[in-house]
Amino acid sequence: MNRPLVALLTGAGISTDSGIPDYRGPNGLWRRDPEAEKLVTYDFYMRDPEIRRRSWLMRRETGALRAEPNAAHRAVAGLERSGIPVRVITQNVDGLHQRAGLPDRKVLELHGTAHGVVCTKCHARGTMADALARVDAGEPDPPCLECGGILKTATVMFGERLDPVVLGDALAISKACTVFIAVGTSLQVQPAAGLAGVAADHGARLVIVNAEPTPYDEIADEVVREPIGEALPRLLRELREQPV
User: Fold this and answer.
1) Is 111 a residue of the active site?
2) What is the distance between the alpha carbons of residues 91 and 189, in angstroms, rounded to a whole number?
3) Is-contact 153 128, C-beta < 8 A?
4) What is the spatial distance between Cα 173 and Cα 6, in angstroms, rounded to a whole number?
5) Per residue in 116-141, pLDDT tens?
6) Cα-based distances in Å from 125 to 60, 119, 150, 208
7) Global model pTM greater than 0.85
8) Of the residues 111, 115, 123, 202, which is catalytic?
């Protein structure tokens, strides 16, 4: 029997055990502080230096850059090492799949990465660590060193489009996979959420692992409400033992 091609769509919920809060859950960041959403909204960020200042402080204070992979990230990397073809499509920007050992070429970061920065004018790139060092040195809103333009994190902010190449690759994987596991995502934000439907329409077994109901639960082959750090390792272990 051929081994399955496993695609995982991962959202904020897979990283909460690493100390990174989610956004839309019952205790999510946007519910606790709706004003925080402005710090990652492109129009607010570009026109308001105070928003940019607060955004850089948020990046400095967040634990995302220092977070370590948890059992769920390690289980995904372990599945890949077992020889089963694995592709991860992640809505997260924390890089924890790669830190757990998953090859970078097998991870599609739909929303970019929090570990880099990019100039909004000349598109020069740099590291978040270097930008935050400038903040620590007294630059509240560090400009691009190449052209003086506005720097932003190399993530897709609200109001920005996803990279069409990355999205196209995600669609191709969703159509080709035999198992599609949506983990820790509300499946409310399009177009990422629609990948679950694409996979199901093309014959994949759809498994949803999320604490809260999602719009795609009714078409899923299996819905799991158990904690992700327990449920995902078990599910992936079953795939290794009994590939479908």
Assistant:
1) yes
2) 10
3) yes
4) 9
5) 999 999 999 999 999 999 999 999 99
6) 18, 7, 12, 36
7) yes
8) 111
